[in-house]
């Protein structure tokens, strides 16, 4: 009870401290942020690992226990099916978010997802059913329940840091929601050695459409078989939260302005090394990444030392996200701390207009 009260008091205190006259921030409920190991994502990760179609996890006592427990199921039908899927990437386990109501698992089949495009709708839905079968046959829930104490211990420092830094409240201060703010679910991914990933609940499982969801891995590459996974979000926690959160906050907005965004498709720098490294092959994806990175730079300018914003802007140039700085500039100059626009939704067209004015032709960015 003392821990709960301390967390509530900390969260309320942080909300008061970050309130600024230049930004309208919704005061989130105390239970707004959930940090957990999601059983569905963990299930799909295990199946993909057994299939040899997932990056090897960093060493830990948990990874060793997982390997030992599930090794007898290396040729389960779900694992065999995963081996023959063609469009398999590290973020495929996000399909685990389509499962809920544990342990009496319920599957929600998305109406549309890029995984259908890559593998075929029937193939993905068959795979989802086979993973549900793996859940039953392997007694996955028993394994998951055995580690609840560990999951809870891993979650505590992450939740404490999010509360103490007020990162979600600061993100909301930029978007200025006029409706109820979203709830956040941070999915700790102890078998993920590759990074963080935003999940779109509205697409995958609309029952949770009011949630901002992303997963983050255990990224300690020098760990050993006795290590305990840690998920501190690193020294750049603000960048992670604001980046992944902005993917979800702006998703519907980008869909609404899809035609207007496509008019700027001549700005795609597909041949640049950064685009190839990030598997970006179309303008919608390119703009999406530049937008959220621009938002991060604008927030760094508002809430951290100027040097941090300059460093982040320089990284984006090096990584070939060449419009992130421009987007940050227009946000900082025309939106941050101003009341001309009530919220980011009303302001968004100005970003597109700014890019069109500054870069009227495909050659403009290179001049």
Please supply descriptive tags for the structure shown above.
two-stranded antiparallel ribbon; 367 residues; alpha/beta; 18 helices; globular
Structural description of this entry:
By secondary structure, the chain is of the alpha/beta class. The protein contains 18 helices and six strands. The strands form two sheets. A four-stranded mixed beta sheet has the order 1-4-6-5. A hairpin with a 5-residue loop joins β2 and β3. The longest helix has 21 residues, at 283-303. 38% of the residues are buried. Mean pLDDT is 89; it is low at 1-29.
Number of strands: 6
Segments where pLDDT lies below 50 for 5+ residues? 1-29
What percentage of residues falls in helices of 4 or more residues?
40-55%
Element-level helix/strand string: HEHHHEEHHHHHEEHEHHHHHHHH
Please outline the major beta sheet: 4 strands, mixed
Mass-distribution shape: globular
Physical arrangement of strands within the biggest beta sheet: 1-4-6-5
> Mean pLDDT score, rounded?
89
- Number of separate helices: 18
Beta fraction of the residues? 5-15%
Q: Roughly how many Å is the radius of gyration?
A: 21 Å
Structural class: alpha/beta
The N- and C-terminal alpha carbons lie at a distance of: 61 Å
Q: Topology of this protein?
A:
Elements: H1 2-18, E1 33-36, H2 39-50, H3 61-70, H4 77-84, E2 99-100, E3 106-107, H5 114-119, H6 121-137, H7 140-146, H8 148-165, H9 167-175, E4 183-189, E5 196-199, H10 201-204, E6 211-217, H11 237-249, H12 251-256, H13 258-262, H14 273-277, H15 283-303, H16 306-318, H17 324-334, H18 344-358
Parallel strand pairs: 1-4, 4-6
Antiparallel strand pairs: 2-3, 5-6
